[in-house]
Structure formats: structure tokens, C-alpha cells
Hints:
Layout: H1 3-44
Amino acid sequence: MTRSDVILLVKKIAVGILVTLLPFLILFWGLRLTQKVLDKAPRNTPSNHP
């Protein structure tokens, strides 16, 4: 294996890891954002306060 083969292999592995992790990160951040938005909504409504 030449140096260029190793660099190409490392690039392909890095792209594969990014392509695998990106959907999970989007899902995680989306769920956290949704949780924060829904968590703030009940506190601001006067219907929950007696």
C-alpha cells in the first residue's frame, strides 16, 4: 500500500463515520430541542397555576 492508498482509506473511513453519526446527531438534537420547547410551554400557561 502506498501513502496515497492509506490516505484514501482514512478519508473513506472518516466519511463513513460522519455519514453514520450525522442522522443520530440530528435526531438527538431534534429531540432535545423538542423537549426544551415542550418543557417551557406548560410553565408559561396560566392554566396550570391555581
